[in-house]
Amino acid sequence: MSRLPALFISHGSPMTALEPGKVGERLAELAASLPRPRAIVLASAHWLTRSPQVGGAATPGTVHDFGGFPQALFDIRYPAPGDPVLSARVAALLQGAGLQPQVDPDRGLDHGVWVPLRLLYPAADIPVVPVSIQPGLGPAHQLRIGRALAPLRDEDVLVIGSGSITHNLHDWRSYDEARQAPYVQPFIDWIEQRMAAEDVDALLDYRRQAPYAERAHPTDEHLLPLYVAMGAGGTPMRAQRIDAGIDMGFLAMDIYRFDGEPAPLAD
What band does 171 get if pLDDT is binned at 50, 70 and 90? Predict the structure, then answer.
């Protein structure tokens, strides 16, 4: 099997599961274009820990980590199996990078996992191992996590970061398709331009350098999975942006595909 890419997916609101729109179309196209992975390792913006955690459940449950949405969302199950052997492999790779992970034997699949995976692989028949992110440790730390996981791409494992290119819930219901938040397109463009230039230093320093960074991301957690995917994606970066639209006028739904060579682990 040829080497799998690493992916970053903007998963949007939980309602994406019921109203997938353009991102659903793009993810279905992407799944059809990829070799079928034997397993998926996914770093979600909705699993936040102080140090790296790896889900080790053999049968992870579907976690409905939200409120105030229609009952149809709470009725959804994504019954993908886990893979404890792969979980141990992920933990070993992170340990080898000096990241001191722990395995959580009970962790389920939060909506940052199952919402995009239902659109990529609706049969839920590919094992999934979730990985946490550490919002207190910044982008460079998440890049180290991704670089540690890069060898999995040669083991028929699809590495995914799931978050959002823009994510400011203070703007919920303030914008719509006819009136977009003014910061969204400049931020989209800056990320794409820095990716094309392979300007890792600028991307790591996005909060100072990107236009409207604090409006696009009042807190870091939804952009941090991008750095996991970047790290796993290797060098040269070979980043491809897949435009999946803008949801509710403020959530940029971009997908990024990374097809570089797995990079050496950072010191």
Answer: confident
Does residue 266 lie in a domain region?
no
Q: Is residue 145 a contact partner of residue 52, using CB atoms and an 8 Å limit?
A: yes
Q: Is 87 domain-assigned?
A: yes
Q: How many domains does the chain have?
A: 1
- Separation between Cα atoms, residue 136 and residue 149, nearest integer Å: 20
61: containing domain: 6-258
Residue with tokens 């959530």: 251
Q: Please tell me the predicted confidence (pLDDT) of residue 170.
A: 82
Residue 151 belongs to domain with CATH number: 3.40.830.10
Contact (CB, 8 A) for 258 and 160: no
Residue 267 maps to a domain = no
Between residues 139 and 235, the one the model is more confident about: 139
User: Is residue 55 assigned to a domain?
Assistant: yes
Pairwise CA distance, residues 168 & 15, whole Å: 16
